[in-house]
Design goal:
Blueprint (H helix, E strand, L loop, with lengths): L11 H45 L5 H16 L3 E11 L3 E10 L8 E10 L8
Antiparallel strand pairs: 1-2, 2-3
């Protein structure tokens, strides 16, 4: 069997590998970073939803919602969310706002990816009509 490569193509496989392998590794790194960001974003969303649920339920309070969101963020972030913070506000018309923010874990040096979530809901109160 004869080789179909000419003498000027010798070593081209090494050159191709030097180009293709780092490009593939960079793509893999970007995909892993996207997965970490998505997981951190989901964690922040869950914490905001938990806080909003407690703040808006009948007999609930804004401070209870904030502490619920903080405990949910601490319990479920497991290193995915750094510098997490939870704030809450009472809005007009008996609406409660819970805001959770932080930074997603970064595996790309020098890059920081923020994650945040805001949930707004009506506070359940007993109101007399009329």
């Amino acid at each position: 069997m004869t080789s179909t490569r000419s003498w000027n193509e010798v070593g081209s496989t090494v050159v191709e590998a030097v180009i293709v392998i780092p490009a593939f590794m960079l793509l893999l790194l970007v995909v892993c970073q996207a997965v970490l960001w998505a997981e951190a974003s989901q964690t922040v969303q869950t914490a905001a939803a938990s806080g909003d649920q407690i703040a808006c339920e009948y007999g609930g309070s804004l401070s209870g919602g904030i502490s619920s969101a903080e405990s949910m963020l601490t319990a479920h972030s497991s290193g995915l969310v750094h510098n997490g913070s939870v704030t809450g506000n009472l809005l007009p018309a008996s609406m409660a706002e819970i805001k959770v923010s932080g930074m997603a874990e970064s595996i790309i040096p020098g890059m920081h990816f923020p994650v945040d979530a805001v949930r707004i809901g009506p506070q359940q109160r007993y109101r007399i009509s009329g």
